[in-house]
Amino acid sequence: MKTAPMTQTQFCVRTLASVILLLLTGLLCTEGSHSLSNIQGQSEPDEVGPHFLAQLTNITVPQGRDISFTCVVDNLGQYRVAWIKSDSKAILGIHTHMVSLNPRLSVTHNGHNTWKLHISHVQLNDSGSYMCQVNTDPMKSLSGYLDVVVPPDILYHPDENIDEGVSTEGGSIALQCSATGVPEPMVQWRREGGKDIIIRSESRDKQAFKSVEGERLTLTNVHRSDMGGYLCIASNGVPPSVSKRFDVHVNFPPTIKAVNQLVGAPVEREVILECIVEVYPKPLNGWYRNEGNVKLHNSNKYNISEAMINLYTWHLNLTIRHLTKADFGAYSCSSVNALGKSETRIRLQELRLPPKSTTTATPHVYTTAKPRRKQQPPSHNKGLNEVVRAKETHFSNQMQQENDVFGSGIGVPQSANGGGAGGIVASGNVNGMINGAEVHTQLPARNGYEKTYKSPGAVPSPSPPWMFPSAGSQLLGTATITTNALVALFCILSMYLVKLI
Questions:
Q1: What average pLDDT score do residues 342-371 get?
Q2: Is residue 105 within 8 Å of 30, Cβ to Cβ?
Q3: Which residues in the chain are classed under CATH 2.60.40.10?
C-alpha cells in the first residue's frame, strides 16, 4: 500500500513540534540536575547569594534635623540595592542613582558593602517606613521606621484679644490657650511668682492650686488678689517647652485708710501724714484741707508723694515742713477712679514739749549715822542750866549773823522747844551750796538723835566764772574761819566747865 507524499505544510508543523520537544526535554533535564544537586548538598544558592549583615534601625528625630538609614549587604554580586518608601511603594533610588525628585533625599555607597539613604531637614510628612531591597528572586529587604516629632507651639489668634482677661470684682474671666505638636502637647496653667491659682465656686468656696491642666482656665467670683500674670505652658517631651503670659485685671472702686488718724507734732518741726489706697485701675489721688475745699500741692511747705506697693495698692505721703499754729487741724486724703471715690481724714495736733531745764541737778549726799549720845541725867542745878542755855542761844544767834553776812550757808537748827540751838557739834555734817545747789546741815539734837536741816541756798555770784577773788577777799575769808574756830573752842570749854561744876 502506498502512502501519500507529505505536503510542505505538514513538514513544517512536524519540524516545529520536534524543536519544541527538544527544548522541553533540555529544560527538564536542567531542572532535574539542579534539584539533584540541592538534594545531595553540593551547592546552596541562598548561601552564596546576597544577604544582610545588620538590621535597619528605627529613628526618632525632631523636625528639621538630618538623618540617614544604613543598609549593609554582603555578597551582592550582580544584584542591585534599592531604597523604597513602604507606605507609598515609591522607589527613591537604585544603587547610587536617585529616582525621586525630592532634593532633600540622596543615596551613597562606600564602595564595599554599605549603602545609605540620607534625608536632610526632615519634615513631618517624611515619617513612615523605609525599605532597603535587593532585586533577587525572590526579593530580599529590610525595613526601618522614621518618627518625626515636633516641639510644642502655642497657637495665636490675631482676631481675638486673648492676651489678657479683664473683669470687675466678683465677675468671671476665661483664658484660652491652644497648642500643637507631635506628639500632642499637654497644656497647664501656672501663676507668676509661684502664687496659688484660686478657683472659686458659685458658693464662694475656694481651692488653691499650684497648676491647673487644660487649654481653658476659668476664674469665677474674681477678687483683687487674683490680679497678676498667668502662664500657659505647653510641653510634649520634645524640647523646648513653650509658654505664653496672660494678664488678669480686676477693676474695683477705691478703698482708703489712714495709717494714723491722730498725729501729734511740735511747732517748728516736720511731720508726715500717710494713707494706704487699694484701687484699680490707677486712680487720681490728692490731699485736702478745710473739709476738702483746699487742695494741697507740692511747694516749700508741702511735699506730696505716692509709691506703688503692688498692682492695686498705693502708699500716699504728705510731708508738712516748719509747723506753725495754723498748720494744726484736719487733713484728708482722697482717691477716685471711674468706679467710685473714697477719702479719709487725719487730725494733726500740736505736741507740747516740756521746757528745757536751766539748773543742774542737786548732787546726792550720803551721810553716816552718828552714834547716840549718852543721855545726861537731869541736873538739879536749874539755875546753872539756864545760864548754859543762854550761852548756847547767844552763840547760835552769833553764828546766824555771821552766816547772813558772809554767806557761809551753815544752817542753825532749832531746839525742841523752838527757843534756840539744840546743841552745836563741830564734827557735824555741813553741806554748802555750789552753783545753786541746796545745802543740808546735819547736827545732833539734844535727845541724841540725828536731824537734818535744810538751809536756803546761796544766791549765785554775779561775777563771771573767769574772775578770780582779790587778796582782800581771801584775807576776809581767812579771818572769818579763825573767828568761827575761836567761838567753837569757847563753847567747848564752857560745856566742859559745866560738867565739872
A1: 72
A2: no
A3: 51-149, 155-252, 259-350
Enter the C-alpha cell of residue 25: 526535554
d(CA 280, CA 250): 7
pTM: 0.57
What is the rounded CA–CA span in Å between residue 360 and residue 376?
A: 44
The three cell numbers locating residue 444: 545732833
E strands, 95-196, in order: 97-98, 105-109, 114-119, 128-134, 140-154, 164-168, 173-176, 179-182, 186-191
- What CA–CA distance (Å, rounded) separates 153 from 468? 99
Query: Which residues touch 434 (CB under 8 Å, ≥6 apart)?
Result: none
As a CATH number, domain 259-350 is: 2.60.40.10
pLDDT digits 0-9 by tens, 58-100: 999 999 999 999 999 999 999 999 999 999 999 999 988 999 9
Query: Helix and strand tally (H, E) in the chain?
Result: 4, 31
- Secondary structure E strands in 13-104: 51-52, 59-62, 67-74, 81-85, 90-94, 97-98
- Is the CATH number of domain 155-252 2.60.40.10? yes
Going by DSSP bridges, is the β-strand pair 262-265/340-350 parallel, antiparallel, or unpaired?
parallel
Distance CA 235, CA 224 (A): 30
Q: Which amino acid is at 409?
A: G
Name the DSSP letter for residue 37: H
Beta strand ranges found along 380-469 (DSSP E): 429-430, 439-444, 450-455
Segments of 425-488 assigned E as strands: 429-430, 439-444, 450-455
Domain 51-149 has CATH 2.60.40.10: yes
Q: What does the pLDDT look like over 242-258, one tens digit per residue?
A: 999 999 999 999 999 99
* H or E segment to which residue 337 belongs: strand 329-337
